[in-house]
Design brief:
This protein has 28 helices and 32 strands. The protein is an alpha/beta fold. A hairpin with a 3-residue loop joins strand 2 and strand 3.
Length: 788
């Protein structure tokens, strides 16, 4: 049956939605209350028979567009659509349906529509309007629940109710049913994962298979190897953002329409989304669903499947934490949303207009729908960026009320209402120049109503470089703060931000060469340091978090292959990471950096020489690509590469670097080199923390933390903590020369007196035969003793 015969407009339903909108705007106590009600009706929704659509369309009022020029556009392929194909030209049929409007909102309803599900595709939709010159314009659905071709293409109507009804972790949520919404609390520790580099498959489905394999091995008590060990021992998994990101600035769109043929068919050129991104370059539109790049099947069900794999993990369920980015939009967001969403430019792209009640309500509704995929927790990126302009005081203010609204949202999964655990990254007064000194990292903790709201702690923020000599004593004042008030902080020095910043440090600084023989070894050990981990897991309060790419000793950086205009500049800024992450052997591996090799950079030294010139020329020419190319062509002896540089060559090199680095950063490339002594120690350390969850609390009056004095050229931390039924003593050599032989249990530390201590954890290379007595500690070595 053709689309025209199958689908019919239901104007009674559309006008009913418009009337509900009118009533809400008329009777609600505030405009925000009204828009909260309206937001629940927005987007494409399907109840099994009727499909309804709601859009916020102030641009139609701006342009004075009459009702007769506004339609709901429905597009449907003539046959089944294979979302796993890289490229296809598909004939579509299309119809336009009438709409009902009230002020800045537009509604439509239709019967006979196909809603997508796990096994079949659905109809695509958007709003379209005609201007006085008979030109057509499209309004996309920012609240779409399926975007197979990205945030800049029509959305797919999706059967969300069926997706939720078939989830495999319903029993997990049903345990929390009660008269009031269940409130999830903090986990003991967290593993942070970037989906595209976490497995060879690079998809949510591939990551789900990894956890299902682990679950089966754990359930059957099978031997585990280093690849297993880096994933085990965590209470929670936090995914870097899984929302749709920016798209390629140049080249084919993922959805391109050819002119209508003579027989009335519309042929659409479809490209499977293939962007690479670290996750934070978002456009806001589409935040309620999943980035199609991460979906092996093209079905958003994959995120629910992953949640179920965590929630059904044997022994102890694992929490899923979603990382949401609502503090800014990339400039591409201007093409996906109307201008009323934005409050002006910032260093990332665009500020959002949180004070507009419609925008505020839509953003919160996006969050509600996203977390309903089954997340137990939410991490809010860049909370210090949620600001509004106070015209009375003529200054920007932090929108703490909005942050409170975020953590107040009640979710519903499997018929059970709950409120997730919340973590905020907030470094205010950043970007003020003295932010590292001025930030308390407690601004949100102290304003929120829940006592279990967390923030990223001071050693977790981006500008921490634990491989520079003097780092640990220079952070002593922050460490003291962590000990006394860090119970609601995320701790740990290795995450997506710190590891990236580490690759941007000038290698000529005072680097701790005791961490390794090469810069690559130094960086890897700095962010997977057993002594730092003992400090984080055995001494510090709060919730420890590790980054998979760090514990796997894989690589990491700013990964984004969409840029055309500024791509060369971005790569020039990232070029220094070559010195930290890529040695000659790694570059020579046949599968590594194949695109750059094809462009003429056959060896690492070839690329390194080019990268010595590029950043300097970007600066001196103020990023004049034509001038840069001419200067590169004048270098003697000539640079490796294409032979004669053009602007196009520079852009191709930049794209090749990003695509090659994305492949190089994949964890699957590094697991064969993992050392079982390190991965097994880290797993045992995480299990120790889970068995002593009381360590999350701040240090009490009986506890002790200090460094050995005199320093004598090394920094050695000692920590005694007294728990409900046991005592813990840790000693960690953080940096510097080796110690003299000494007995850690003989140190004059309050609480250490007496017998009964057992050495339960020893960092590599300390052998298991060490049970106490004299020892020489060297950089990155540590011990954990327990009594009771």
């Amino acid at each position: 049956m053709g689309l025209k015969d199958r689908v019919a407009a239901d104007m009674n339903a559309a006008e009913g939605l418009a009337n509900k909108c009118r009533l809400a705007l008329t009777t609600a106590p505030t405009a925000f209350d009204a828009h909260e009600r309206i937001a629940r009706t927005m987007g494409g929704q399907y109840d099994g028979e009727l499909a309804t659509f709601g859009f916020w369309t102030p641009e139609l009022l701006d342009h004075r567009i009459p009702d007769g020029d506004v339609f709901l556009e429905i597009s449907s392929p003539f046959g089944p659509l294979d979302l796993t194909r890289s490229h296809q030209e598909v004939p579509f049929e299309r119809i336009l349906l009438p709409v009902a409007r009230y002020e800045a909102h537009t509604f439509a309803a239709a019967t006979g529509m196909r809603a997508g599900n796990r096994d079949a595709g659905g109809d695509f939709y958007a709003l379209v309007w005609r201007d006085p010159q008979d030109r057509w314009h499209r309004i996309l659905d920012p609240l779409a629940m399926s975007l197979p071709f990205g945030a800049f293409a029509p959305a797919e109507l999706y059967d969300v109710a069926a997706m939720q009804a078939n989830r495999a972790d319903a029993a997990y949520f049903e345990r929390f049913a009660g008269d009031a919404p269940h409130k999830f609390g903090p986990p003991v520790n967290i593993l942070q994962i970037h989906v595209p580099t976490a497995t060879a498959g690079g998809s949510l489905a591939s990551l789900t298979r990894q956890y299902r394999r682990l679950a089966e091995r754990v359930e059957k008590d099978l031997p585990i190897d280093p690849m297993d060990e880096i994933f085990l021992g965590y209470d929670a998994v936090q995914l870097l953002p899984v929302e749709p990101t920016t798209v390629h600035e140049q080249g084919l769109d993922f959805w391109s329409e050819a002119p209508v043929t003579d027989d009335g068919q519309l042929v659409i050129d479809l490209v499977r989304p293939d962007t690479t991104n670290w996750g934070y370059d978002i456009v806001i539109s589409g935040m309620a669903t999943v980035n199609p790049v991460l979906l092996e099947s093209g079905r958003p069900d994959e995120l629910i499947d992953f949640a179920a794999a965590l929630h059904n993990f044997p022994g102890k369920p694992k929490m899923l934490i979603l990382d949401v980015v609502f503090g800014h939009a990339d400039n591409q967001g201007l093409k996906a949303l109307n201008h009323h969403f934005f409050a002006g430019p910032n260093m990332y792209g665009q500020n959002l207009d949180y004070r507009n009640p419609a925008v505020r309500a839509i953003l919160l509704e996006m969050q509600r729908r996203k977390v309903d995929f089954g997340a137990d927790g939410v991490r809010v990126d860049g909370a210090q960026d949620f600001k509004w302009w106070d015209p009375g005081e003529q200054k920007l203010k932090h929108d703490d009320d909005y942050l409170q609204c975020m953590s107040d949202i009640v979710q519903e999964v499997a018929g059970v209402q709950y409120r997730p655990w919340f973590v905020f990254e907030d470094g205010r007064p950043w970007p003020q120049e003295d932010w590292e000194l001025s930030s308390t990292y407690r601004a949100v903790i102290e304003t929120q109503t829940d006592d279990d709201v967390f923030q990223w702690g001071p050693l977790t923020f981006a500008h921490n470089t634990p491989f520079i000599y003097g780092y640990w004593l220079s952070k002593w004042w922050r460490i003291r703060e962590m000990l006394s008030r860090g119970s609601n902080w995320i701790s740990g020095t290795a995450n997506h931000d710190t590891l990236r910043r580490g690759t941007q440090v000038n290698p000529k600084l005072n680097i701790n060469t005791r961490l390794g023989d090469t810069q690559k070894e130094i960086l890897e050990k700095a962010y997977d340091n057993p002594a730092v981990s003992v400090l984080t897991y055995g001494a510090f309060p709060g919730v420890p978090m590790d980054f998979l790419n760090a514990t796997a000793r894989a690589n990491w950086g700013f990964i984004r292959n969409q840029d055309d205009r500024y791509g060369v500049k971005v790569v020039a800024e990232e070029a220094i990471s070559l010195k930290w992450q890529v040695d000659s052997y790694s570059y020579s591996v046949p599968g590594n950096f194949r695109r750059l090799k094809e462009l003429g950079f056959e060896t690492r030294s070839d690329l390194a020489r080019f990268f010595e010139f590029l950043p300097a020329l970007v600066d001196v020419t103020e990023y004049d690509l034509d001038h840069i190319a001419k200067l590169l062509n004048g270098v003697e002896p000539p640079l490796a590469g294409p032979g004669y540089f053009t602007i196009g060559d520079l852009k191709r090199i930049a794209r090749a670097w990003m695509d090659d680095m994305h492949e190089y950063c994949n964890v699957s490339n590094s697991v064969s080199a993992l050392h079982s002594a390190q991965t097994n120690f880290m797993l045992r350390l995480r299990r120790f923390r889970r068995a002593n969850s009381w360590l999350r609390d701040n240090l009490g009056p009986d506890d002790h933390f200090d460094y050995l004095q005199p320093v004598d050229g090394r920094t050695i931390f000692t920590c005694y903590r007294k728990g409900p039924s046991s005592e813990i003593f840790t000693i960690t050599h953080m940096e510097g020369g080796e110690s003299d032989p000494f007995d850690p249990l003989s140190l004059p530390i309050p609480g250490l007196e007496g017998d009964g201590w057992r050495c339960i954890l020893r960092t590599p290379p300390i052998g298991s035969d060490y049970e106490g007595g004299e020892i020489v500690l060297r950089d990155s070595m540590g011990l954990v003793f327990e009594r009771g």
